[in-house]
Write a structure and sequence with these properties.
- The protein has 163 residues and is α/β, with parallel strands linked by helices.
- 20% of the residues lie in helices and 33% in strands.
- The strands form 2 sheets. Strands 1, 3, 4, 5, 6, 7, 9, 10 and 11 form a 9-stranded mixed sheet that branches. Strands 2-8 form a two-stranded antiparallel sheet.
- The longest helix is centred in the first third of the chain and has 11 residues.
- The radius of gyration is 15 Å and the shape is globular.
- Bound molecules: NADP nicotinamide-adenine-dinucleotide phosphate.
- The site of NADP nicotinamide-adenine-dinucleotide phosphate has 28 residues, from β1, β2, β3, α2 and α4.
Length: 163
């Protein structure tokens, strides 16, 4: 299982239910990496998508305890363990954990690869965070893109692997 996320220098990933900053190239990278795959997310991340709709061309597994969540096109599960079991049903497909903070933290232990878009800024108002992989000895950087820039914000695509 893999995770994919855009994080700032403090490993902040979200503000008030949304992303830190729009980065079109990161959106393209996310779409490219995850297309055709199984994606696992928390209910709040689903709600952050346009009209709260699931992502096209992917199996959308959504973790929630809510009985009223009946969005069409999602596979709703009630726990992280159930999400893992559900994802295993799609043999041969890649599985990506796509957020948000609560789900990344609970599911890091299942992941062997992390695609981190590192945003070279600190967002003081970030309210959602993930674990700092640089502080975890089992995670090592295996690939790093050149530095990119959008509207004055620098970022790069970094791949970590569990060693
Ligand atoms: N930077 C990025 O790449 C990125 C990616 C994704 C998300 N985000 C950001 O992250 C933020 C959302 O993250 P978040 O941590 O607030 O919410 P979240 O993880 O997306 O969703 C939390 C919800 O998921 C359900 N859930 C989580 N763990 C569960 C468990 N073990 N059992 C049952 N249900 C469980 C619960 O839903 P119920 O309350 O319905 O039970 C919980 O309220 C937003 O700001 C979003 O934009 C950023």
């Amino acid at each position: 299982m893999k995770m994919i996320v855009a994080a700032d220098k403090n490993w902040g990933i979200g503000i008030e239910g949304g992303l830190l900053t729009p980065l079109p190239e990161d959106m393209r990278y996310f779409r490219e990496k995850t297309k055709g795959s199984v994606v696992i997310m928390g209910r709040k991340t689903l709600e952050s998508f346009p009209e709260g709709k699931p992502l096209k061309n992917r199996v959308n597994i959504v973790i929630s305890t809510s009985e009223s969540l009946t969005t069409e096109g999602i596979v709703k599960v009630a726990s992280v363990e159930e999400a893992v079991r559900e994802a295993e049903k799609y043999a041969g497909r890649e599985v990506f954990v796509i957020g948000g903070g609560t789900v990344y933290r609970q599911m890091l232990k299942y992941c062997d690869t992390a695609y981190i878009t590192k945003i070279d800024r600190v967002f003081d108002n970030a309210d959602t965070f993930i674990d700092n992989l640089d502080m975890l000895p089992e995670w090592k950087i295996v690939e790093m893109s050149e530095v990119k820039e959008y509207n004055g914000t620098e970022f790069s695509f970094v791949i970590y692997k569990r060693v």
